[in-house]
Amino acid sequence: MRVFAERLIAYETRGNESSGTKNPAAFPVCDKLRPHLATLMGNTGVRTLLSRALAQAEREVPSLRALRVKADGSLEHSGELEVQADPQELAKGSVVLVAQLLGLLVAFIGEKLALRIVCDAWPKLALNDLNLLERDRK
Amino acid sequence: MKNPNDAAKRKLSKKPASQPAKVTIHKIPSGVRGLDDILGGGIPEFSFNIIAGTPGCGKTTLAHQIVFANATVKKPALYFTVLGEPALKMLRYQQQYSFFDESRLGKAIRFVNLSDVVVEQDLHAVLEEIIKQVTAANPSVVVVDSFRTVVRKAMSGASELEMQSFIQRLAQFLTSWEATTFLVGEYVPEEMRDNPLFTVADGLFWLSQVTERNSVVRKLQIVKLRGTASVPGLHTIRISGAGLQAFSRTLGLVGNKTKPARRRRLSVGIPELDKMMGGGILEGDSLLVAGPSGTGKSALATQFIAEGLRRGESGIIAVFEERPHGYTDRAESFGLNLKSPQEKGRLEILYLRPLDLSVDETMQEILDAIEKIGAKRLVIDSLVGFEMALAPGFRADFRESLYRMIGALTGAGITVLSTVEVEDTFTAFSFSHYTISFLTDDIIRMRYAEIDGQLRKVMVVIKMRGGNHSKDIREYVITDKGVVVIHPRSTDYDGLTTGIPTRTGPRLAQAEESAPEPKAKK
């Protein structure tokens, strides 16, 4: 799942590495997924799902505690994040968070439907190796 | 986009100008096996329908089947979810059904969550959101699940008039957009009287679960369906891996009757019994073989099927008591091979004993098997076991159901042999516990009789609707050849049918004899 999450993050943040954005790389990925998930689950549903993913990710990357899920299902962070976390940890946290979110989706609706949602969110992203999630799990 | 001329073309038929053309109401498939027959051909296009019932009846599954049966990329389906089952969970569970094709999600089938609008805003906003989505997607099918939650929330802040107005506007809008609509909701029958929704709706599909003793049976009623003649009454439904399946309560009573005008006589595989029956059983007849336990009813039934197979007629054995291998083993002990015909697809042994069956489901299974192998002969062994396999609620209607089932099967040209166990009382000579003898064309009664210090077996043909038959009471045995009629009519006894006959002829000198009935090999 992490390989897949890394790929999504890389795709979504391509060219932005030096743009000086202060948000973790998980933000744009989650933002891109949000409307597609909200169509299915409503904002409340997205918020709940992302909160669960965040709670799980925090166990592995404690600095993610600085993140918060807003009522509309979007992510925000306190300013402490950049001060406390080193860039590597921040990058890892993003991957873990996106992987947890995708993992929850797969657990609920299975790989096929989860990938369909990802495809809807990134229609131009080549997802020709649809067994990515499977391979990643091994 | 839909071509507006399409609708106009559909609505105009090519009738002479002097005769104003009636509108043609097209039907869309429900995607539920058996349901279109109940609906009179399908769901009327552009109708505004309610799928109602208590939790767990299969409302959402029904809605999904309709959606998957009709949605295309050009004419998609919009599935609005509200505060009931979240779409994520809905997808999780619904994908377990075989009709669920995930490749159609997104383009042909779109799920839209209305929860936030319902919770945070009013009825007007809900309607606006539906209008926005429908206008953008131009769907052929729209589902709101659960509409009950929309109404419940709205009623907390809106007047009844506002509610009525909302329903009216929603129905008008969706019909104008040529969408066939389904509002799914948990309702109880008492609500039908006062709820304006039920007045506005064109169709009302009522699903329920009927509990009787330990058995639960799902039922469907088409309470109303404008523009088409649906089959009234309660129909059984079953939910399996394929989704819902409906069994019309008139299953078998409608459709083509293919009983041939000139019917052959079919051998039952026992030459002497064929003679007693005037040459055999008439093709397309229903024969009831009644007798107490151990008199050879199943053996006779096995011979009937085996004889058919020998003559190139495929057969079906519906077993309710013993297991299928019991039948094949018994046949083997009579020198009859039932295994090869099974392997070659000429014989099907249906083992049906789930304890909550309906007669209609059984009939459907049998009809499917008949169609599959082109069967000409059918054995139902036994009616007592069949009754036991039914849910308690269906047992009360067993006689009526049998009437329908036997009528349907013989109407399709199948020759049916049913066995029924009756208890020998030695004072009476009953044919069955069900007073069903009128349902069958022919009856053979087997019974025990005490003769010369032995409990022997006798049989008699009670009736043959299609012609004359022997009135003789004949003794028979079960040997390694199966049921064999051994003696001609005995004139030395009176009262054989009581089981305790009186000798009227001279007692013959008898040697110390072994039992006249060698046991069949196990």
Radius of gyration of chain A: 14 Å
Strand order of the largest sheet of chain A: 1-2
Distance between the termini of chain B: 72 Å
Helix share, percent of chain A: 55-70%
**Structural class assignment of chain B:** alpha/beta
- Record the strand order, biggest sheet of chain B: 5-4-6-7-3-8-9-10-11
Work out the helix count of chain B.
Answer: 17
Explain what the structure shows:
The complex is a heterodimer of chains A (138) and B (522). With 138 residues, chain A is mainly alpha-helical. Chain A is built from 5 helices and 2 strands; from the N terminus they run ααββααα. In chain A, strands 1-2 form a two-stranded antiparallel sheet. The longest helix of chain A has 35 residues, at 26-60. Chain B is of the alpha/beta class and 522 residues long. In chain B, the strands form 5 sheets. Chain B has a 9-stranded mixed β-sheet, sandwiched between helices. A 9-stranded mixed β-sheet of chain B has the order 16-15-17-18-14-19-20-21-22, sandwiched between helices. In chain B, strand 8 and strand 9 form a beta hairpin. The radius of gyration of chain B is 30 Å and the shape is elongated.
SSE layout and pairings?
The complex is a heterodimer of chains A (138) and B (522).
Chain A (H helix, E strand, L loop, with lengths): L1 H11 L13 H35 L6 E3 L5 E3 L2 H5 L2 H35 L10 H6 L1
Antiparallel strand pairs in A: 1-2
Helix pairs in contact in A: 1-4, 2-4
Chain B lengths: L3 H8 L15 E2 L6 H4 L4 E2 L3 E6 L5 H12 L6 E5 L5 H8 L14 E5 L1 H6 L2 H15 L3 E5 L1 H11 L2 H17 L3 E7 L9 H5 L2 E10 L2 E11 L8 E7 L2 E5 L17 E2 L4 H6 L4 E2 L3 E6 L5 H14 L4 E5 L4 H10 L5 H5 L3 E5 L7 H15 L3 E5 L1 H7 L2 H4 L2 H14 L3 E7 L20 E10 L2 E11 L9 E6 L2 E4 L7 E2 L7 E2 L19
Helix pairs in contact in B: 6-8, 14-17
